[in-house]
Specification:
Elements: H1 3-29, H2 38-64, H3 72-96, H4 101-119
Helix pairs in contact: 1-2, 3-4
């Protein structure tokens, strides 16, 4: 793996991971109060769980930076996850309408990261492929 390729992947994974981990953890531990309404409590629980998954994906992206050469499958998995997020956002554009510019900016960034992680993951390690 070339140093430039490794540095790019590590920087993007770390940026992506921290951008999910920090806000996800904040919302998990400092959510809006749900009140006494059962439906609102269910929605708050679901919202908190989704942010927990978001923080978990951030942790996985940060951990992939530790030994990036061995994390090809994880990087591709993160790329596929981002591709699904992009597909959901594009579908939402057509079904709910055009959101504000920050959401469109996220769509562009997520699209670029998905393309990079899917098109340029760490190379496959073939050293252990042939066992005598």
């Amino acid at each position: 793996m070339q140093k430039r390729h490794k540095r790019l992947l590590v920087a993007l994974l770390m940026l992506f991971g921290l951008s999910l981990l920090v806000p996800g953890a904040i919302v998990i531990f400092h959510p809006e109060p749900a009140g006494l309404n059962t439906q609102m409590a269910d929605q708050a629980n679901q919202f908190r769980a989704l942010h927990g998954m978001m923080a978990g994906l951030g942790v996985m992206a940060c951990l992939a930076c530790y030994r990036i050469e061995r994390e090809r499958t994880l990087v591709i998995g993160i790329g596929l996850t981002l591709a699904l997020v992009v597909a959901a956002r594009v579908y939402s554009l057509f079904s709910e309408g055009v959101p504000d510019w920050p959401t469109l900016f996220y769509l562009v960034i997520e699209s670029i990261l998905a393309l990079i992680f899917l098109r340029y993951p760490p190379p496959a390690d073939n050293t252990g492929a042939l066992l005598d």
